[in-house]
Structure formats: structure tokens, C-alpha cells
Specification:
23% helix; 8-stranded antiparallel beta barrel; alpha+beta; single chain; 3 helices; 151 residues
């Protein structure tokens, strides 16, 4: 086999691997936050996606990031625009609506929402650990939310 033929075979194999269901099924997470980390007003939401479908959702808050697992509660319209709902174990509901690259979050459909921003998870100034499943930027995070949660 010639070098060019081998290169072509390797390239075709790489493309096939990236397009395979196994590659598509790798978990990804979109992280959003409101407020400053380490403060009492800090809130964080993590939306996990696998195979294009919602899997796990976590809400954390405060300086210690006390964490709760939420349940996806389906799609919703808020002010005539696509949104979705998540529910705490105590049945408290949150309404979430993508807005640009941010996420509007409210306790009822008529409450004034807080706007969460995409949150980078990874090394800063060379310090920290790379987050393999994390959305690389706010655009990828919003694509994950739109495809898996809002549809």
C-alpha cells in the first residue's frame, strides 16, 4: 500500500469514527450561571446531553455550590416563545427560555426572569483541569440546549 493510499484510508476511518453513533453518544454538558462564583447569590445550572437527548440536569447555588438534581419536565411556551421546564424533587418548577447566548430562568411563566450566562469550566491562566464534555463556548452550549431540551 502506498503512503497516499494509507493516508486516504486513515482519513476515511477518522471521518467514519466521528460520524458514528458512538461518537454522537458521547455525553456533553452546557453550563450556565448567574452571579459570581463563591458568593451567596451564585447559581449554576448544568444540562447534560447524550445522543442528542436530555440526560441529567443539576442546579447548584451559594458559595459552597450545594447541588440538586432536577428533572426535565418538557417543552413550554413562555410569552409565545419556545422554552422548557425543569423540576426539583419538591415539585418546584423552573421555566427556562433561550435568549441569544443566555438563558432566562424564572419560577413561573409570568415572573421576571434572571438571565444566566454560559459558564466556562476549565483551566484559567494554565491552572485547572480541562473539561472534556463541556461545551467549548456559548454557541455550542446553546446548540446543545436547543437540540436536546427545546427542540
Amino acid at each position: 500500500m502506498t503512503l497516499n493510499a494509507l493516508k486516504g484510508l486513515l482519513a476515511a476511518t477518522a471521518v467514519a469514527a466521528l460520524a458514528s453513533p458512538a461518537a454522537y453518544a458521547q455525553p456533553k454538558v452546557a453550563n450556565y450561571a448567574f452571579g459570581k462564583p463563591g458568593t451567596a447569590s451564585y447559581e449554576h445550572l448544568s444540562f447534560w446531553v447524550k445522543g442528542g437527548k436530555p440526560t441529567d440536569i443539576y442546579y447548584a447555588f451559594g458559595p459552597d455550590r450545594k447541588e440538586y438534581k432536577l428533572a426535565y419536565a418538557g417543552q413550554e411556551l413562555v410569552n409565545g416563545k419556545p422554552a422548557f421546564k425543569v423540576q426539583f424533587s419538591n415539585k418546584h418548577m423552573l421555566y427556562l427560555q433561550p435568549s441569544g447566548t443566555g438563558l432566562k430562568v424564572a419560577s413561573t411563566k409570568t415572573d421576571t426572569p434572571k438571565t444566566y450566562a454560559w459558564e466556562y469550566e476549565g483551566p484559567t491562566n494554565g491552572i485547572g483541569t480541562f473539561c472534556q464534555p463541556c461545551a467549548a463556548d456559548e454557541k455550542e452550549a446553546m446548540r446543545l440546549l436547543q437540540a436536546a431540551y427545546v427542540r
